[in-house]
Amino acid sequence: MNWWGKLSLPQTLTLGFLVIILIGSGLLTLPISSQDGTAISYIDALFTATSATCVTGMTVVNTALHWSIFGKTVILILIEIGGLGFMTFAVLMFVFMGRKVNLTTQLLTQQSLNLESFANIRSVVFLVIRLSLAIQLLGVGLLMVDFYPKYGLIQGLSCSIFHSINAFCNAGFDLFDNSLVQFQNDPYLLFVLTCLIISGSLGFLVWKDLLLYRKDHFLSLHTKLALTTYLGLIGISFIVYLLTEGNFSENPHLTLFQRLMNTYFMAVTPRTAGFYTYPYTKISMGGMFFTMILMLIGGTPGSTAGGIKSTTVDILLIRVWATLRGKRDATFMGRRFTNENISRSLTLVFLVFVVLSVATLILTVTESIPKRFGIEYILFDVVSAFGTTGLSLGLTPHLTLIGKLIFMVLMFMGRVGIFTVMYSLLNSKHPEDAFRYPKENVMIG
Amino acid sequence: MNWWGKLSLPQTLTLGFLVIILIGSGLLTLPISSQDGTAISYIDALFTATSATCVTGMTVVNTALHWSIFGKTVILILIEIGGLGFMTFAVLMFVFMGRKVNLTTQLLTQQSLNLESFANIRSVVFLVIRLSLAIQLLGVGLLMVDFYPKYGLIQGLSCSIFHSINAFCNAGFDLFDNSLVQFQNDPYLLFVLTCLIISGSLGFLVWKDLLLYRKDHFLSLHTKLALTTYLGLIGISFIVYLLTEGNFSENPHLTLFQRLMNTYFMAVTPRTAGFYTYPYTKISMGGMFFTMILMLIGGTPGSTAGGIKSTTVDILLIRVWATLRGKRDATFMGRRFTNENISRSLTLVFLVFVVLSVATLILTVTESIPKRFGIEYILFDVVSAFGTTGLSLGLTPHLTLIGKLIFMVLMFMGRVGIFTVMYSLLNSKHPEDAFRYPKENVMIG
Ligand SMILES: [K+]
Ligand SMILES: [K+]
């Protein structure tokens, strides 16, 4: 058995992501990666590679101005690997090399895609890749309709490819000065982008269920929950932003339809995509706090999203409501959640709050806050990094070295999963304790 | 069976606190309660009564300047009722009237004091009351040593009584302009006050265990956990505040010993007492965020404290660590925590975060934030209200009507307990569901 055969599943996953980030950072630090041919500092290359692989989209240098075509291609490849999950690629390699997919790879792919059963992992992986590429190609075509007249063939095509990939993988890098603020009055572009964002953040399992529905007439509990939540959250977000930012007072020239379209865009992006048409530094305090909650919730598990994950929050809300109503079971659409699911969700949320609190506490000491901001200047970017959203109130480009290191850890935990990272660090073996201490109750709350 | 016999336990507790607050607010709104003989608006009287009964110490009018001797006495009585728990008083009344304590009252007292067993409720209640009064009397004597030379007999004595009660009950009302800022260079006073604060916030169960230790040689898991946490948190807080505020740059005249004493005072008060010698508007961002974490954690259950409660946080930290290490049981000093304890703790924390987030979101819309502050202006006071700490960055005296209502709900939930309030609102009956839906796993995190 070779040395990597001894690694646990979470360790292999964590290590795999780390290796990809390190290779990416090595490439990005080459002079060929930057437009002016001078090498960027290694920490900034590492930060960009982490941000790309973890599909976060946080930047310490301007993407359009700093990176060469080579650098941008490296970033796109990292995003694609991070978005589809590097395990999908591993399986693909096995298949191409004509070898049978072995059990370890199956287990890894399953964990990477958050699949619950072994059933035909190979066909699912192929489905995932074909579907992703098809949607991204379609995205390129639809974006070209808008970008070709504006930028011509070459620049229009590269711009379409870059933003199609970034929208579908929910990475949120852009080639403009100020994200998509200049496209406020371009409803077609905003609509295409939201479609790509939603396709990518629904998660592969939901897609699989939907595609096979005509044959199977079956939707898993996961798919039902994920879809309901997705629609519900977009609806609630739309209403909240209408109330807090609906007047778009900064932009009196927008028509009512354009305002509604921008509000809809705003409702779709903060949970993980990270594009914006309305600068978050000008948002109201209520809108800003609500955006933080959305970033913390994040997207569907098994998708390109980070954060706590929408279904996790659902389960907890349903469980709390059941507890308060004195019900034994937490149920949704005729199914009850397992105790393992619930206890794992609760532990996850508590762990996230501990990690984010510690990160924020350190950053309040190491980073400096401009006069016109309060603690939201740090909190917003911290939540954004963990949610792999990539929105910023302005802290990220000014991070200190310690700040950059903390943000890289947050993005990594957000994408790879806080449990996976923790398990690999602690190398837990899940032993059954032979001896148990006697139990005793203590007071709660 | 009379109508109140049909109320559930949580409903009786909630209703009891409500009635006391309403009576208090009625008295405080009388012209006789204010120094200038004019009636205060009812909402401000209600806010003060809630703040006193919930031992929070948040004020919308200056305590020393606005209230007459009568008004101050009403506030002190509300604090004493809130601090010792009105159920203690109910048992006392039964006892004085020569009647045997009935089962309902026992159950209520048990819930109110967070006792886990029925064992001699009557003797515990007497112990609680005797001990509390003894400590507060001792406090008055010790404070007189300081206040008598400064203010003379009458004013010194009333000042001593007021602050002894407020320190022991962790209420945090004060008779000065700016809490205890003028006593920065009075280490004796600060030391006496911290002793009173700690006595009150250890919780009655810990006191009982400690007092009976010479006879029983037994400490409950609760007491071991509570004491360890208490010492640990004071130690950690002392170090953190030394790092973030240790230089006390605003106060160059303080000696090293006085600085250490003020840092110690700062480490003891934020978890529930709410006195301060260093204005929190001048604190560093790191210190402020750390104070928010301390207020959220709160004190020991069964004490005068609010918040999530220290032992709850302990259990979760120990459980998360055990989960990450792959251990089956969460253990502490040779005892393991029950699953009921753990799941109740996790649910509590999640519920608290939902409630605080919703409250903050509404307040970001209804309240206005001064230029030099960010969202911490709202978050700090929200956490302070729920933790029944009573510290403020300045929002509380300027609250709108909606703001005052939200803060009253937060203080009430913090003191009475979020589960108790929720259970009474929803009137849950804890039925065993006869029919169960089939279970199904979904993806987590
Ligand atoms: K993103
Ligand atoms: K208090």
TrEMBL record, chains A, B:
Instruction: Write out the entry's keywords from A to Z.
Output: Cell membrane, Ion transport, Membrane, Potassium, Potassium transport, Transmembrane, Transmembrane helix, Transport
Keyword Transmembrane listed? The answer is yes
Q: Where in the cell is it found?
A: Cell membrane
Source organism superkingdom: Bacteria
| UniProt cross-references to Pfam families, sorted A to Z | TrkH
Checking InterPro entries in the record gives: Cat_transpt, TrkH
Q: How does it sit in the membrane?
A: Multi-pass membrane protein
Could you tell me what this protein is called? TrkH family potassium uptake protein
What parts of the sequence cross the membrane?
12-33, 39-61, 73-97, 124-145, 188-207, 227-244, 264-281, 288-308, 342-365, 377-395, 401-426
